[in-house]
Amino acid sequence: MTAEGGSHNFSSGVTETRPTGPLFIDDGGCRCALQEELGTEAWRCIANTTNNIYSGQTGKWFFAVNQANSASLQDLPNSDSNPPDLSTPYFIEGEGQNEKFVEITSENENTDLGDVTCSGKNDTEASSDLYKEVSVSTTESLSPCWQPGTTPLILQDASEWNATGCNLGFLCQNNTASNPPTYCPPSPPAQIARLEGVTTPPMGPYEPVVCQKGNYCPPGGTQQIICPSGHFCSIGAYEPTQCSFGALCPPASYRDRSLLPLILLIALDLLIISAILVSKIQWNGRRESPRRRSRRAKHLRKVLPFSRLGAQNEQYLPIYDGNFPLESRISGVRRANTSSLAAMDNDFAFHESNAVDDERSDSNIQQLVQSLSRCTTAASIGLSFEFANLSYQPKGSNQPILSQVTGGITSGSFWGIMGASGAGKSTFVNVLMGKHSHTGGVTKINGGTGISSKYKKVIGYVPQDDIVLPELTVRENILHSARIRLPSDWSDKDAQRHVELVLKCLQLPHVQNSRVGSTAAPVISGGERKRVSIGMELAAAPMALFLDEPTSGLDATSASSIMLILKAVSRLGITVVTIIHQPRHEIFEALDNVLLLGAGRVIYSGKEAKAQAYFEDCGFNFPEGHNPADTIMDIIAGQGHLYKKLGDTDVSHLIEQWTYRQDAMKAATGFPCPSPSDVEIVALDRTVQMRGASWYRQTYFCLSRAFLQQYRLRSSFYAEISVATLTGLLLGLAETSEDGINFRGIFHHPYELLSSSADYSSVPEMSLLIGLASGIIASPPGVRVFGEEKLMYAREASSGHNRFAYYIGKVLSTLPRMILSSLHFTMPFMYLSTPRMSWGAAFIANLLYFYCIYGLSSCVSMVTRREDGPLIATMTSLVVAIISGVRPSLHTVGGWHMTWLWRASPGTWLSEAYFTENVTPYRYLYQIDPAAAGTGFNLGHYSLDLAMLFMLGTLYRVIAFGALRVFNRRSHR
């Protein structure tokens, strides 16, 4: 509806603007006037008294009976000498030259709901009153309601009208103290429309009407003015609202539709894409040819101080912490030859045809010895282990896995642990490292009794499965381990140089810039992947290195290469203990010592070279030309009868024989490990304390690594923001039909009867859809944050990484991803739906909900298998979204005394935030407190709602961190 000018009374609305023709009121309560339109004399009937009957083209039209009687247009207003043809009603369709009369049918009825009641039949009594009104310009005698047979209900008496006037947001154009606001019962079509929430025209001349969208009605309600350009006016506006910067708001705008956020988002996307393209071009430009890499390698050999080291066996000076010597006397401990000459034995030199660096292996190893000596001393790198009557029995098990295992492992030696499946090999290594707490016996490290976890920073462990990050290159994987675990006083330049030497010793320079890849989609070979796993531990300069079946899954050549590397590593002074399964002859001979287990007991412990002689002394025959390692494996696996015709060959008998030969075991080990002095113990402790970067540097390194991973996995990020954008578009399209009006309440007193059907649920339902969509968008990537790396976390935690630094680095790395995903969801949704809530307030609420879903998904990823995580996390997020106080409402839940459960869901706080921001602006027009009570939400707590979303998201991350540490605790030791 529109009002022309500032007219206060009915007569001015009837008579102004153009010459008038005959006029009457029909029995439907509509005004009908004869005029010429589209070259045809026709009667126009309208129900809305605020519209000028002689202007506009809305309403019902009836052709005049006598088209030739043009003089009837000039007849007196009380003349109806040329009546309407009531047989066929019409409406006018089209614009300009395309305007035409269209016959009204049940299929195309599109007139104003108030005009539906227009009949065109003259109501003589009402028309007489109208004629009188036109002649005397007074409204007292007008029909108070247009619906025949209805009686108006006075909403405000004269005193109340004088006291309060017209309510804010209403148009009371015809009302005065003598004609106060009234309520007229609506016609059936109007009543149906009001029940459907549609605002209908007034049913009488004195009935107030809410100011229509696109217009505003200043206080007093005397006029309805078109909303000016640059502003928007929602339904019931009493003043125009400034549109946000960048919004397109022509005159008569009723919602704020800003393009600026979309433009900024597109600009941000273009900036990111440009940065990625530039980075990719630069990366391709930095790729070197083999010839250039060779020249660079030769240059490094000249400038690196390590390259000038001689290949003689020299005693390096001890390291000092201030004036305190670190491990100055540990060098006196007896052990295998760990000199650089031994490391450069021709039997253990590397010769790979695909090696990029042409330096001799002996020079590489010599340089690595010098680098390792900076961590401890070259003569005291290794750790010695002693164990007596060692046993381990899991909780709830009646059978021990280990029992009465006694022996010693000297520092700087190369040990192989062998046995049949179930013999206790892995359990023994885990107990010796401190991953499992032994249930009996004693373990010692360098003569000191205690748990090995104390020294986990200087003990390396290579699991059977190559646990490396597939997105990183060979060098990046090894460098991260070095940065985290090398002494804290090392510079990054020192770490880079140390990694360079490790790569050379492991013959990996030619693939150092290649991504490792996964086992399902490998990039480098299996042998190279295994060497990367070893290099990650060697780069940390361990004093002891444990490996679980390093040759598993490799071909014979690759397995031999790995064992030669380990042999050379042990010659550096690092104690190497490896579990071996079915070794070939060359691999078996590479071992210094072997520990053979059967049924959790020791069968043999000693020199590898003496193992065959020991079993031959026990009566076993070794076939000529056969691999002695295969024969020994058959014997300790219970197949000894194949090699011994007479006598007992059971495993239990072999265990008893070894027990009786304890003196032989002592002779085989060569010497007992001496007890270190107090100075040595303190020095070793101080050395361990110096290991590892500070927690904040570890956080930085983990954060940088996580960003690099996400960059390498750009496709998943593109998929996430694409889903976010598509979801935002679809939800926006679903809400755009609401025209930005998501709430209808009961008008303030005394206009309650004028209210349409109340709508308290649209805003909560909109927030419910947002919660469901956010769960679909954020759950899968939230699971992948930790779900893909639990094994990597366990490996790093067991080697002394700061757990909190790792976790915080991963959490911080997800923040840019969450921000971009939330932006791509919020911007198209807000542009299409245009709720009263500002896009900034919606973005913050959505971002915090994304923060909650990411945290919740992290919790799920800690307790589920990797392949099940995305599905379970998505289902969990949908449940959380449904528990949002919409269906059932929070008010209903309160009757169940279950409000606490709903309040524990972030969906409830999101819904409450949306309810506050979309409903509170209508406080002047509607009674919103009953709406809040009916839904159960609290109004005016937007800041609290956001704070609770942040707290819940943080709590989920605390729970996830606790679960990360609790589940599979043993693997973290």
UniProtKB/TrEMBL annotation:
Predominant localisation class: membrane
GO MF term (any one): ABC-type transporter activity
Ranges of residues in domain ABC transporter: 385-624
Entry annotated with the keyword Transport: yes
Organism domain of life: Eukaryota
Positions of transmembrane segments: 837-857, 869-890, 946-967
Pfam families: ABC2_membrane_7, ABC_tran
Membrane topology, record value: Multi-pass membrane protein
Compositional bias segments (type: Polar residues): 8-18
InterPro entries in the cross-refs: AAA+_ATPase, ABC_transporter-like_ATP-bd, ABC_transporter-like_CS, ABCG_dom, ABCG_transporters, P-loop_NTPase
Region annotation (Disordered) ranges: 1-20
Keyword list, A-Z: ATP-binding, Membrane, Nucleotide-binding, Transmembrane, Transmembrane helix, Transport
Record-level GO cellular component terms: membrane
Places the protein is found: Membrane
Protein name in UniProt: ABC transporter domain-containing protein
